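Lecture 7, part 2: worked example. A protein chain together with flavin-adenine dinucleotide.
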Amino acid sequence: MKIKDIYQNKKAVFSFEIFPPNENFSSEKLYGVIDELSIQKPDFISVTYGAGGTTKGGTIEMASYIKNKLNIEAVTHLTCVGSRKDEIENFLNELERNNIENILALRGDIPKDQDESIYDRGDFLYASDLIKAVRATKRFSVGGAFYPEVHHENNDLIDLFNLKKKVDSGTDFLVSQIFFDNESFLDFRDKAEKVGINVPLAAGIIPVTNAKQIKRITSLCNCKIPKKLERILNAYEDNNEAMYQAGIAYATEQIIELLSAGIKGIHIYTMNKTNAVKEILENISSIRKYYE
Ligand code: FAD
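Predicted complex, written out as structure tokens:
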């Protein structure tokens, strides 16, 4: 099923994001993670592609397992920075062979071993160019990324208008960068509606179960840590169990507030871990039923 149709048919959509196998995370281990995540009955699972300059292998393999073995909708991320049209076409053909109908289309960042000249070597400048190319095939539902606290290369107004261009080029749904401040997210939603962005928005939620990891991620993602979360981090950063419990509570509260404010998509960045996802979804089981 296409993600576009899932959003049309459901009152709230719950999805997970995983990253593909790498030298520290084997395929076997990841199959186990996906099996456990599937117990939570997500509406879809997305698999990243070369994120953070890492290897691109394994994305389709994992998405295929999700879709064809577990019968859960799969989304493959796809970046276009430095890519030629034929490479993208090959990737799309491979998706079709694997029965995968959904793509999160991204520009991507400069890989670790390269410099800015990569932007000139490919056939696509922005994610919207990739989205147009994928749409032209008429084979996929296409999503894009958005940044409720602004993409680091731009100011908020320019970024918002660029996002509008991206949606107008054929985006069916948008998935957000991680954020911890619901007010910023909801303000962004209101601004987006005012400029005519009216595709479903999925809020990117990451459970803060490890203070050090979150400090590293927030500096990479350009997202702010609200006072409320800062106090929690300062209080519990040296106690793993307390931090874990507080992180689950924070993410649970974030999700409840967003759903009650009318946000349709909750996209959990799992970091290939299952316990936190399970606990959060148990915490909101009645709320999830309410949206069925
Ligand atoms: P774009 O939408 O192209 O935007 C990039 C910048 O260009 C923005 O500042 C925007 O304002 C500007 N811009 C856009 N269009 C125009 C235009 N027409 N004219 C002028 N300026 C323009 N990276 C990976 O490598 N692999 C992944 O799997 C991956 N998954 C991600 C998933 C999510 C949900 C998110 C939020 C990010 C993900 N990323 C991933 C990171 C992403 O590739 C980077 O954040 C990248 O810097 C921007 O990608 P984008 O698709 O948002 O780019």
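The CA atoms of residues 18 and 272 lie 5 Å apart. The longest strand covers residues 73-79. Keep this in mind for problem set question 3.
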